Amino acid sequence: xxxxxxxxxxxxxxxxxxxxxxxxxxxxxxxxxxxxxxxxxxxxxxxxxxxxxxxxxxxxxxxxxxxxxxxxxxxxxxxxxxxxxxxxxxxxxxxxxxxxxxxxxxxxxxxxxxxxxxxxxxxxxxxxxxxxxxxxxxxxxxxxxxxxxxxxxxxxxxxxxxxxxxxxxxxxxxxxxxxxxxxxxx
Length: 186
Ligand SMILES: CC(C)(COP(=O)(O)OP(=O)(O)OC[C@H]1O[C@@H](n2cnc3c(N)ncnc32)[C@H](O)[C@@H]1OP(=O)(O)O)[C@@H](O)C(=O)NCCC(=O)NCCS
Prior knowledge:
By secondary structure, this protein is α+β, with helices and mostly antiparallel strands. The chain has five helices and seven strands; from the N terminus they run E-H-H-H-E-E-E-H-E-H-E-E. Helix 1 crosses helix 3. Bound molecules: coenzyme A.
């Protein structure tokens, strides 16, 4: 377990691209390497993570990337974006929680709940009223966390890891109002 100190939650910019690319690839592999074919995982990592890919995401006005730092060190990130939801999401003003990753050394620390408050804030800035996400059906810890955070299961969708078609549960929650924020960029 890492000791968390002076934790900040700030929007990332293009200057963070290389650091985010390394962190995002590492946390994806930490979470999913054990349950995926190595070639599929490698194809997914090279298609989705790298300084160029993350620079494009960080520069995209339809994406907000929240970086959580402990004493300056990146320990978690989340990406909220404007994106058309799958048909099972029929809720008003939906925005997508596209990525949500905490360093494995900080799992169970409460940091994920604080990061979710920063996600609510980013969703409100996109005028979202609901947050939807896809989570692999074989990721029970994340599903338990999201349910604890108020998400409900509304259906499923397909997510590709390389050529492997995986079933994601689709979860939805209401965007919480500003009064419930405790996390901010500081
Ligand atoms: C998903 C994630 C952000 C959640 O953060 P976290 O700090 O681990 O979450 P918490 O510990 O607060 O909550 C997880 C809950 O799942 C429970 N849990 C742990 N392992 C579990 C399992 N195998 N099955 C079911 N529940 C499980 C925990 O006990 C905890 O519940 P509790 O607080 O009631 O005890 C973090 O685990 C993570 O970054 N995982 C890897 C990346 C990932 O999967 N991201 C989501 C992609 S959609």
